[in-house]
Amino acid sequence: MEDETGIVDVVAVAVRKARKGLGLSQEDLALEAGLDRTYVSQVERGTRNCTIIVLARLAKALKTTPDRLLVPQRKGRP
After folding, report:
1. Are 32 and 57 within 8 A, CB to CB?
2. Could you give all domains of the chain from N- to C-terminal order, each with its CATH number?
3. Which residue, among 51, 53, 40, has the nearest Cα to 12 in the 3D structure?
4. Three-state SS for 60?
């Protein structure tokens, strides 16, 4: 069984990558999603296990779908 924190880390990386791809600050994302900036920071650091509702709000603010935030990001080639 995969380590339970694994999916939290997957979401952390996906949210951070999507946010930066849109050129948003954590504060901008938080405002769009109706969250506190510190909450977004915790999600991106993998210290906060967000609910499905918050995942959906983040996805909408990031112009994506929740399922895309649950897919492990591919590592770049060496």
Report:
1. no
2. 5-63 (1.10.260.40)
3. 40
4. helix
